[in-house]
């Protein structure tokens, strides 16, 4: 049975402000010169919260660190989202976690008590598959080498794209494989896609390196996101961006595209699909550099919650690269009482 987390603001301490890889996301207007940013407004009274909710037609929620931590639900979060549905508000979930497909995520949402259907879930695995299929017109006779987990494989399959690697390459690399051709070039590989991978190993890095360097310019290099850390069950660990850094360094090449937040590839798909009015849409997240930047680049309202990785110091930094329009202790604090 899943446990309920009572919000304890700021208990997760960010592990630093330096990123292992330089982001490809454009700088937010008015913040690239190191100047002061407007401070976030704390939603602290019932009147302010009610007015804030009434102004919005759509709420876009990040998941990890916002609605739950691992399998632990943030107190009051499911109830608040059901209140939004009862008010006729649209709910969209956006996550950079690529370990699960949308269909798998529906099971988790419902198990934890959240209203959800596949069509209102946008994960970075789906965004990557959509990009390959619709933006790159990925050839049917080519395969994607996946450094990642089953969620990516499932979303690629939904798009009719062949995938190799992932769980099939979880076994440790043997010394003899350097000599027997196992790690050699493969002309059938048309793209390397890296996402979160709790089973990442040297075999996967070696294959991805070979495919990207043996056929320079012929193999697409994609990543689901560049999150530096991964919050789960009250702790933080290395995220996809940290795993990606090793591959970037070895091949001396940045990804051709990063598909998750704060990239606007995902935002454009959401806005077009649901015909949203940015002026009446709010992005709710726990990360300034991904969630809040994602919303601000899309010209949405932004709300920072303090149940994830952002520290008080980062939230209140006068010269921070990104600040949220509003902040609150947790999603549960938005409930109408």
TrEMBL record:
E.C. designation(s): 3.1.3.41
Which EC class is this protein assigned?
hydrolase
Cellular component GO terms held in the UniProt record: cytoplasm
Residues annotated as region Disordered? 1-46
Q: Which SUPFAM superfamilies match?
A: HAD-like
Q: Give me the comment on cofactor binding.
A: Divalent metal ions. Mg(2+) is the most effective.
Cofactor annotation: Mg(2+)
Protein residues bound to substrate: 261
Which residue positions are annotated as catalytic?
Answer: 62, 64
Q: Which residues bind Mg(2+)?
A: 62, 64, 286
| Keyword Nucleotide-binding found | no
- For this chain's UniProt record, which GO biological process terms are given? carbohydrate metabolic process
- Which Gene3D superfamilies would you find in this protein's record? HAD superfamily/HAD-like
Q: Which domain of life is it from?
A: Eukaryota
User: Which reaction does this chain catalyze?
Assistant: 4-nitrophenyl phosphate + H2O = 4-nitrophenol + phosphate + H(+)
Q: Which PANTHER family match?
A: 4-NITROPHENYLPHOSPHATASE-RELATED (PTHR19288), HALOACID DEHALOGENASE-LIKE HYDROLASE DOMAIN-CONTAINING PROTEIN 2 (PTHR19288:SF46)
* Name listed for the protein in its UniProt record: 4-nitrophenylphosphatase
| Organism of derivation | Gonapodya prolifera (strain JEL478)
């Amino acid at each position: 049975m899943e446990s309920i987390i009572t919000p304890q603001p700021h208990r997760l301490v960010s592990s630093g402000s330096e990123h292992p890889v330089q982001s490809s996301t454009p700088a937010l207007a008015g913040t690239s010169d190191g100047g002061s940013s407007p401070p976030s407004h704390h939603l602290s009274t019932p009147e302010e919260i009610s007015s804030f909710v009434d102004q919005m037609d759509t709420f876009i929620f990040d998941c990890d660190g916002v609605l739950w931590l691992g399998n632990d639900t943030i107190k009051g979060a499911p109830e608040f989202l059901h209140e939004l549905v009862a008010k006729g508000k649209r709910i969209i979930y956006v996550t950079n976690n690529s370990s699960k497909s949308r269909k798998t995520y529906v099971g988790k949402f419902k198990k934890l008590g959240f209203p959800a259907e596949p069509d209102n879930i946008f994960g970075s695995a789906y965004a990557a598959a959509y990009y390959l299929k619709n933006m790159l017109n990925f050839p049917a006779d080519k395969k994607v080498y996946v450094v990642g987990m089953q969620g990516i494989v499932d979303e690629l399959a939904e798009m009719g794209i062949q995938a190799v690697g992932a769980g099939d390459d979880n076994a440790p690399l043997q010394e003899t494989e350097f000599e027997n051709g196992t790690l050699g070039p493969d002309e059938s590989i048309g793209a390397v896609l890296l996402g979160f991978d709790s089973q990442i190993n040297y075999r996967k890095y070696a294959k991805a390196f070979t495919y990207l360097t043996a056929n320079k310019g012929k193999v697409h290099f994609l990543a689901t996101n560049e999150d530096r850390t991964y919050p789960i069950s009250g702790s933080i660990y290395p995220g996809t961006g940290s795993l990606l850094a090793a591959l970037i360094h070895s091949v001396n090449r940045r990804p051709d595209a990063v598909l998750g937040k704060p990239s606007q590839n995902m935002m454009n798909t959401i806005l077009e699909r649901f015909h949203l009015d940015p002026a009446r849409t709010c992005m709710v997240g726990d990360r300034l550099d991904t969630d809040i930047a994602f919303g601000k680049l899309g010209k949405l309202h932004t709300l920072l919650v303090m149940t994830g990785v952002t520290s008080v110091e980062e939230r209140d930094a006068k010269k921070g690269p990104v600040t949220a329009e509003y902040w609150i202790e947790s999603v549960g604090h938005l409930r109408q009482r």
